[in-house]
Amino acid sequence: MVKPVKVGDMTTIKLENIAYGGDVVGRKDDFAIFVTGGVPGEVVKIKVTEVKRNYGRGKVVDVVAPVEERIDSECPKYDLCGGCQMQHIDYTAQLNYKQQMVEDAIERIAKLDDIKINQVKGMENPYLYRNKAQFPLGVEDEEVITGFYAAGSHKLIKVKDCQIQHPVINRIVDRAVKLIEDYNLSIYNEEIHQGLLRHLVVRVGVCTNQAMLVLVTKDEKFVKGQEIAHKLLEEVPELISVYQNVNPEQTNVVLGDKTALLAGQEYILDYIGPIKYQISPLSFFQVNSLQTKVLYDQVLEYAKLTGEEKVLDAYCGLGSISLYLANQAQEVYGIEVVPEAIEQAKENAKLNDINNCQFAVGKVKDVLPQLKNQFSPEVIVVDPPRKGCHEEVLEAFAKIKPQRIVYVSCKPTSLARDLKRLKDLGYYTEEIQPVDMFPQTYHIENVALIKKK
Ligand SMILES: C[S@@+](CC[C@H](N)C(=O)[O-])C[C@H]1O[C@@H](n2cnc3c(N)ncnc32)[C@H](O)[C@@H]1O
């Protein structure tokens, strides 16, 4: 079939529906083109960047007829940086489009049309919300810079005052970069695999204003490390903990295996509702603390606990959901594959005087069969990584015969696939509540209430 466009063409099209990922689909002679930077309904001039057998890709170079949902992005580097995909869309419209993405995934993949999908719960202020940032370091015009990689590339784009990071993060990064320059430290160059400093990782407890900085280095030897760490603690009042992490590998993974405290405290604290959590450099903790409360309250509502139930929290991380539910359950059992996270879950339980939680290290699919006869939960809460649950795990859930499963998911397509599998196993989904944990990006979290037939 002859394609109506080729790479590099400029063409004008009308945009139709938003796709998962934030691109908007338009058509040229029935040939679908996924366009970055558009809004449904508007007419745009695009540059075609890719042509495949069944579809193409392009990006907006000019808006010919805008729609009222289009706004000016707050970030001067928005067009270059790959971090946000929806900053050019008014927030109310962002929420509506995310709702469509969820509905579309459920209809197309799960093929379930009887599930109630509620209105997305959004944020009052959808900016400056991220409690964690990982900035690569680079050099531009002999100046040390931090920022993000451009979408789909390894070109570092200098970003100052990112609009979605917590303001304390931006301040710490500014000070750290200044000291790195003052001390004339070498910056890692990935092409030749040389240089000392690779990344800055910053975490903030949004409710406590305590912050942690991790300096990621290629080599273990970091002569001025402690001196710099102490200076930073003096200069930034919110900063209470500075670590070095060593990553000697040629890899895209940010953190290496060795982590050592350079100065200050071992962890920072944050609160989700009444529960206090210790956060260390390697802990998984939801990146939007304020919306995490909305998310966990939704889990509580769907779990419908009376104080009598045993609850299984599968993929529990550092026990955040387990502890949030514990006061309203008879007992909670958390399973997580990262041993350090389980150590921290136990610490967090002590910190909150919670005595009815047990935690096990291991893969959910391996731990579940061992649990048989020891722990039979009425409610299962499951919060897997983006790829969703292994089929074996869903089968094991069905064998346990809980009354309810509350499924927390950060990827609508894997959620849809798993809901379909659960239906075949005798569990139907009654309702889904999307929660916007990641404003300005295409990501959307969902909580599904699933009941035994
Ligand atoms: C999306 S996080 C959820 C964490 C936690 N529920 C929370 O809200 O903070 C998923 C967690 O699953 C863990 N994980 C990944 N694969 C796993 C597996 N096969 N078995 C157990 N845990 C796993 C990850 O280490 C991570 O902590």
UniProtKB/TrEMBL annotation:
The record's section on Pfam families has: TRAM (PF01938), tRNA_U5-meth_tr (PF05958)
Q: Where are the transmembrane segments?
A: none
Which keywords annotate this record? Methyltransferase, S-adenosyl-L-methionine, Transferase
Quick check: keyword S-adenosyl-L-methionine in the entry? yes
Instruction: Tell me which residues make up the TRAM domain.
Output: 4-62
Q: Name one GO biological process term.
A: rRNA base methylation
Q: Which InterPro entries match?
A: MeTrfase_TrmA_AS, MeTrfase_TrmA_CS, NA-bd_OB-fold, SAM-dependent_MTases_sf, TRAM_dom, U5_MeTrfase_fam
Q: Which family does it belong to?
A: Belongs to the class I-like SAM-binding methyltransferase superfamily. RNA M5U methyltransferase family.
Q: What is this protein called?
A: 23S rRNA (Uracil-5-)-methyltransferase RumA
Please report the organism this UniProt entry assigns to the protein: Halobacteroides halobius (strain ATCC 35273 / DSM 5150 / MD-1)
What does UniProt list as this organism's lineage? Bacteria, Bacillati, Bacillota, Clostridia, Halanaerobiales
